[in-house]
Task: inverse folding
């Protein structure tokens, strides 16, 4: 499947990926409206880790052996058959946060407005996830992984 | 009054209706211009720290930032300009030399803009480079005066003349010397890899060679300057050619100074100096006080490398450049690189950058003419450097007599540089002129290589177009062919030195 590859050597830590992730998952998908008009802007689904000068943007790895799939009691977490991505069905999620507990990368968070889990959905419907598309230094790449 | 702040150079204009307080600018500015206030969730700016590098403007996701020149309240004055007043104020406060980076920015005449190219009409058909082959390949190095043939034992004709080692350039453009230390490793990697893929050369400057760059040795001109930094047998063997740097166009007559803060562990290894110490290159080479001394060094280097590599000499374009170049040619140099006064630098005293040297246009024309007069033009190749902005400048330099052109400022602009002239601070936001690990990673060599390749590709396509227009199918036929140039808006004396006719004068 196509995955997001992180090149931490070239991540500047600007967090533009976060900004664009928020906008992509907002109601209007308009940056000004998202930040200034909408009553609650979504939480970012990408997390920029920083230690010293090393920074990188981490998002759901869409694990082959995803613990969140096993931990989910309602079956809200599922693997998309077509793309292989691990997605969360909002209708089924009850907000038990078990996925957050088991995620080894800590990349699942609580949605800002609803009691549901929020995670990277690889921007389904777009050619390329917006974090990758908008990274000014190509520190994120969207590539076919070998597995 | 004891202290008067220097006037603010730029104003950061922030459109309040568009600023989403995402803090990208706050995180990215190495000069701490942007300040986030968590209480009010707003971003403000400290204009006095802005150097005008436009990095924040480039990254701002909502285009909320515009960097504008501060139209200061000083009364307009042609003599006492804002920069003059600022410099005097700074010096009154510090008692120091004003430093700057990049090339001379004073409005001296740019002669390239006063030279026009020819094109074919009716009597001499032009060539379409899309349909017919067009040769841009150049060889740099000493050429034989004549070709001698002899009969071998079998009675067959054989070539007797041995050709000296040459540098083969696929395009008559090379990347000029920029040392690892003055620029980041990612910049060096971008230049090296692009040169490798383009079939041209880049120059190490006097920073030695980082261990990761040895693999690009075939496309590397290694430099030996007055500080002899990083020179060792392996270094000499690795390069495709050796360049002795006597002077630099931005600061002729003075040495170099890389501050200790920029001498990181890796820079210290490449330069072979202790970590954190200032790297000071003396103004002269202390073993070169005459052409004879230069000859000794050239031959010592040739001896050390088994006569396998061309040895060139880089000099700054100064008033006496003509006899100096003639001497350098006679000293046995395979090429002479002449750096004009608009050539860039990582750091130089502003007064020297802006007042010393002569434009490359005159230097190249005068040197080419003299070497021809003396009958030694074939003995040496000429490389012009110093402020080449476009393929137009390159082709004019070649028609004036240069064999190839060195570019560096244009290459850095391709990598992002916005000519803020603050290279000497080591805080380059674009990750070019810095060793700060927070900043160097901003230049992704993969992107850098592609942009440099694009630039050279674009220029070579344009050069082919211009050559075709002149009815020439090889760049060799244009070298020193000044009949293709005409001057406009120049005095008789200027035309005479450039060796070109005025616009309107027929062949």
Result:
């Amino acid at each position: 499947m196509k995955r997001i590859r992180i090149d931490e050597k070239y991540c500047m830590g600007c967090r533009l990926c976060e900004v664009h992730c928020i906008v992509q998952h907002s109601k209007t998908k308009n940056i000004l409206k998202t930040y200034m008009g909408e009553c609650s802007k979504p939480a970012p689904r990408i997390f920029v880790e920083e230690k010293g000068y090393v920074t990188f943007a981490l998002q759901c790895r869409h694990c082959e052996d995803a613990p969140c799939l096993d931990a989910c009691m309602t079956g809200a977490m599922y693997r998309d058959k077509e793309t292989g991505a691990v997605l969360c069905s909002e209708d089924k999620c009850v907000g038990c946060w078990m996925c957050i507990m088991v995620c080894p990368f800590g990349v699942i968070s609580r949605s800002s407005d609803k009691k549901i889990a929020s995670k990277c959905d690889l921007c389904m419907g777009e050619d390329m996830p917006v974090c990758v598309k908008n990274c000014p230094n190509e520190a994120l790449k969207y590539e076919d992984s070998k597995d | 009054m004891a202290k008067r702040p220097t006037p603010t150079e730029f104003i950061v204009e922030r459109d309040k209706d568009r600023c989403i307080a995402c803090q990208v600018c706050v995180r990215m500015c190495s000069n701490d211009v942007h300040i986030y206030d968590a209480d009010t969730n707003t971003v403000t700016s400290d204009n006095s720290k802005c150097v005008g590098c436009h990095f924040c403007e480039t990254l701002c996701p909502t285009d909320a930032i515009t960097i504008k020149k501060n139209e200061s309240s000083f009364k307009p004055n042609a003599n006492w300009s804002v920069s003059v007043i600022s410099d005097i104020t700074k010096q009154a406060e510090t008692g120091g030399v004003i430093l700057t980076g990049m090339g001379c920015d004073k409005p001296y005449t740019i002669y390239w803009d006063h030279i026009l190219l020819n094109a074919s009409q009716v009597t001499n058909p032009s060539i379409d480079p899309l349909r017919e082959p067009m040769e841009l390949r150049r060889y740099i190095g000493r050429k034989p005066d004549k070709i001698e043939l002899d009969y071998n034992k079998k009675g067959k004709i054989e070539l007797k003349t041995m050709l000296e080692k040459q540098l083969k350039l696929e395009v008559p453009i090379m990347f000029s010397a920029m040392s690892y230390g003055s620029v980041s490793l990612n910049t060096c990697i971008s230049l090296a890899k692009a040169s490798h893929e383009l079939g041209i050369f880049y120059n190490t400057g006097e920073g030695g060679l980082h261990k990761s760059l040895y693999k690009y040795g075939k496309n590397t001109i290694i430099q030996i300057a007055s500080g002899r930094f990083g020179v060792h047998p392996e270094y000499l063997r690795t390069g495709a050619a050796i360049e002795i740097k006597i002077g630099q166009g931005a600061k002729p007559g003075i040495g170099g100074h890389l501050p200790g803060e920029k001498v990181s562990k890796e820079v210290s290894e490449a330069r072979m100096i202790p970590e954190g110490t200032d790297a000071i290159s003396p103004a002269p080479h202390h073993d070169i006080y005459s052409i004879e001394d230069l000859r000794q060094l050239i031959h010592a280097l040739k001896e050390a490398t088994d006569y396998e590599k061309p040895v060139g000499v880089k000099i700054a374009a100064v008033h006496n450049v003509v006899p100096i170049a003639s001497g350098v040619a006679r000293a046995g140099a395979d090429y002479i690189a002449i750096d004009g006064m608009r050539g860039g630098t990582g750091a130089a005293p502003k007064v020297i950058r802006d007042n010393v040297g002569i434009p490359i246009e005159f230097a190249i024309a005068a040197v080419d003419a003299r070497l021809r007069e003396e009958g030694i033009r074939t003995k040496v190749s000429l490389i012009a450097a110093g402020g080449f902005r476009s393929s137009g400048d390159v082709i004019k330099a070649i028609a004036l007599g240069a064999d190839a052109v060195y570019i560096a400022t244009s290459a850095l602009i391709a990598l992002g540089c916005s000519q803020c002239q603050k290279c000497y601070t080591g805080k380059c936001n674009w990750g070019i002129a810095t060793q700060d690990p927070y900043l160097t990673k901003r230049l992704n060599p993969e992107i850098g290589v592609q942009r440099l390749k694009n630039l050279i590709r674009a220029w070579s396509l344009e050069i082919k177009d211009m050559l075709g227009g002149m009815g020439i199918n090889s760049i060799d036929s244009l070298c020193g062919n000044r009949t293709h140039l005409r001057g406009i808006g120049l005095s008789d004396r200027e035309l005479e030195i450039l060796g070109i006719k005025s616009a309107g004068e027929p062949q």
Remarks:
- Chain B has two domains: 10-96, 154-502.
- The radius of gyration of chain B is 24 Å.
